[in-house]
Design brief:
Layout (H helix, E strand, L loop, with lengths): L6 E2 L3 H18 L6 H11 L2 E2 L4 E2 L3 E3 L5 E3 L4 E2 L3 E4 L4 E3 L4 E2 L4 E3 L1 E2 L4 H5 L2 E4 L2 E3 L4 E2 L4 E2 L4 E2 L4 E2 L4 E2 L7 E4 L4 E5 L6
Parallel strand pairs: 2-5, 3-6, 4-7, 5-8, 6-9, 7-10, 8-13, 9-14, 10-15, 13-16, 14-17, 15-18, 17-19
Antiparallel strand pairs: 1-12, 11-12, 19-20
Helix pairs in contact: 1-2
Length: 182
């Protein structure tokens, strides 16, 4: 699973880790905004590495949680789905709109392998100071460079360089940050 190769999704160890994450996610999603310390304590138990001044608004969904790094000052709005079958690394000062999905799992095209519950995963890396608009989907194996802005609803299927604006499905660069808008 962590090495990127095929694995059986129904493995008992993975199932136990997923149940543990589901329980912690349930606790996090039930926390009150009136008690930010309790909310952060549950989040720190769920997430592998949690930087200072990170804010995540529930509900949040994860596969395992421990393979996620959230850098200092990151903000994640309501409804995030972070499927961390492989590592998800989010830099500092990242902003994510509502309903953003970071999806590391992949599935074989071969129907017999899928029926047999084979899966794989590829890591996702989000650089510092990235802004992902509402509803952005980041696909397995993608890296997004620092300062990049991804427009709402975009589907990021390939790496994006630093300092660009990207939109669409599939996401495509429409300009470099610092260039005048056309």
């Amino acid at each position: 699973m962590r090495a990127g190769g095929l694995y059986i999704a129904d493995d008992p160890e993975r199932a136990a880790e997923a149940r543990h994450a589901a329980v912690l996610s349930e606790r996090f999603n039930a926390t009150s905004a009136a008690d930010p310390e309790a909310r952060r304590a549950v989040l720190a138990e769920l997430i592998g590495e949690l930087g200072e001044d990170v804010e995540v608004r529930p509900p949040l969904r994860v596969d395992y949680g421990y393979q996620i790094t959230l850098g200092r000052g990151t903000f994640i709005n309501f409804g995030a789905v972070l499927l961390d079958v492989a590592r998800i690394t989010v830099g500092a000062d990242v902003q994510m709109g509502p309903n953003v999905q970071l999806l590391t799992p992949t599935h074989p095209i071969d129907p017999e392998q899928r029926r047999a519950k084979w899966e794989a995963a590829q890591p996702i890396t989000i650089g510092d100071n990235v802004w992902l608009g509402g509803g952005v989907i980041v696909c397995p194996g993608v890296a997004i460079g620092e300062n990049t802005v991804v427009g709402a609803g975009a589907v990021v299927t390939k790496d994006l360089p630093a300092n660009v604006v990207a939109v669409g499905n599939p996401a495509r660069v429409i300009r470099r940050i610092g260039e005048a808008e056309a």
